[in-house]
Design a protein that fits this description.
- This protein is of the alpha/beta class and 242 residues long.
- It folds into 2 domains: 118 residues, Tetrapyrrole methylase, N-terminal domain (Cobalt-precorrin-4 Transmethylase, domain 1, 3-Layer(aba) Sandwich), CATH 3.40.1010; 108 residues, Methyltransferase, Cobalt-precorrin-4 Transmethylase, Domain 2 (2-Layer Sandwich), CATH 3.30.950.10.
- It has 7 helices and 10 strands.
- The strands form 2 sheets. The chain has a 5-stranded parallel β-sheet with strand order 3-2-4-1-5, with helices on both faces.
- Helix 3 packs across helix 4.
- It is elongated, with a radius of gyration of 20 Å.
- 32% of the residues are buried.
Length: 242
């Protein structure tokens, strides 16, 4: 009796940009793959694999479709990967950073496919690791990692503890204009305008070098300007007593 091998989807973390952050395990998996799916193509690892003549598929055009939400895009990607694995026996899916950090498609794959498809996740260096290198966070004080719509909007954070705000652009739909003023407004509900914060971002493709700048919270919109790639905000603790 011949047992059919279970289909597999391998999710590979490609790091926050520079090829130097790609782990050896991730590099080996990507070079062995016949085809690699990417959520977005503007990443140095995508360009590197293209130079190595790999067959690459990107889902980035999904983000340009009007009136389509993030949830619908993620469902499409997950279904496409499941179909690929069922038809061909395997699928390799490359994601920026660490697939376990703020990545809904990884979570959806594990929820929807793990009963009939083997899901393997190869971790990568996260953008959070770069933030930790830029700012002095006291984890003993109970650092918090939050999102604007999920946490700031509802006041679901403690201003007395270190705060890292991710995805400060505050976009509810892929085609929305960035709403950084909402992030600033929700923070100003608990912090004074002069409270010093630190903006951390990258210069984008192709170098993805990390940069940071400190300034008063009231200047966030102006300092963000026309847009920053992968922008996050570090907010030190604040206490009325001090």
């Amino acid at each position: 009796m011949v047992h059919r091998q279970m289909p597999a989807i391998t999710v590979v973390g490609t790091g926050p940009g520079p090829l130097s952050y790609l782990t050896k395990e991730a590099e080996r998996e990507l070079l062995l793959a016949d085809k690699v799916f990417f959520r977005m193509s503007r990443h140095p690892v995508y360009a590197w694999l293209k130079e190595n003549r790999k067959q690459l598929v990107s889902f980035e055009m999904m983000y340009t479709i009007p009136r389509i939400g993030f949830g619908e895009i993620y469902e499409f990607i997950v279904n496409a990967l499941i179909q690929e694995a069922m038809l061909r026996g395997q699928a390799v899916y490359a994601l920026p950073g660490n697939p376990f950090v703020l990545e809904d498609t990884t979570r959806l794959l594990k929820l929807q496919a793990s009963k009939h498809i083997h899901i393997k996740v190869i971790p990568g260096v996260s953008f959070l690791d770069l933030i930790y290198g830029e700012v002095d966070i006291d984890f003993a004080a109970g650092a918090q990692i939050v999102l604007p719509y999920s946490h700031l909007q509802h006041g679901a954070f403690d201003e007395r503890r270190p705060l890292v705000v991710c995805q400060i652009e505050c976009m509810s739909q892929p085609c929305d204009e960035p709403r950084v003023e909402l992030t600033m407004r929700w923070l100003l509900n608990k912090y004074p305008p002069e409270h010093s914060v630190q903006l951390i971002w990258t210069d984008g493709y192709p170098a993805y070098e990390t940069t940071s700048k400190a300034f008063p919270l009231r200047d966030l919109v102006r300092e963000y300007g026309a847009g920053r790639f992968f922008a996050s905000l570090y907010v030190p603790p604040f206490s009325k007593e001090t």
